[in-house]
Specification:
Length: 151
């Protein structure tokens, strides 16, 4: 098994587990398309270490609103925009923390930055040659979330 595939599984399993734990919503991998782009809000965190990288989790505003609604137990229409951003940051933080624990005894061990959110349509990653990109789209018919790891 190649390293991209192994790392992809670790990040994918961690994101699926985090979303299931915080929201009770099960997701499955819908695609593994490196050109799946970003939705209108993207949580991001830098991973620094011997093999540094960046973790991105992207979704449209309404999907994160639904996740937040499940997390805090209020109807979606009562979820404030700042809560949506906080939810995405927390999902990124928990996913990265889970991956960090799973990779702690490997060459891919890393430290974490603070999570933050980028907002905007049409964002894409332009990477140098020999940059690795892990990309997955997850969903369940109600919610869709995109994962990218660049290292």
């Amino acid at each position: 098994m190649d390293m991209d595939h192994s790392l992809g599984l670790v990040f994918s399993d961690s994101l699926i587990e985090v979303i299931s734990t915080v929201s009770g919503t099960a997701l499955e991998i819908l695609s593994q398309d490196k050109d799946n782009g970003f939705d209108d809000i993207t949580g991001m965190m830098s991973l620094s270490g011997n093999k540094p990288g960046t973790l991105f989790v992207s979704a449209n505003n309404n999907d994160v609103r639904m996740l937040c609604s499940y997390m805090i137990g209020v109807p979606p229409e009562e979820v404030a925009q700042n809560d949506i951003y906080d939810t995405l940051c927390e999902i990124v933080n928990m996913t990265a923390g889970s991956v960090k624990l799973r990779l702690s005894d490997t060459d891919y061990a890393f430290s974490l930055s603070q999570p933050f959110v980028l907002k905007g349509d049409g964002m894409s990653i332009i990477a140098k040659d020999k940059t690795h990109i892990i990309s997955r789209t997850f969903g369940n018919g109600r919610i869709s979330v995109k994962l990218k790891v660049v290292y």
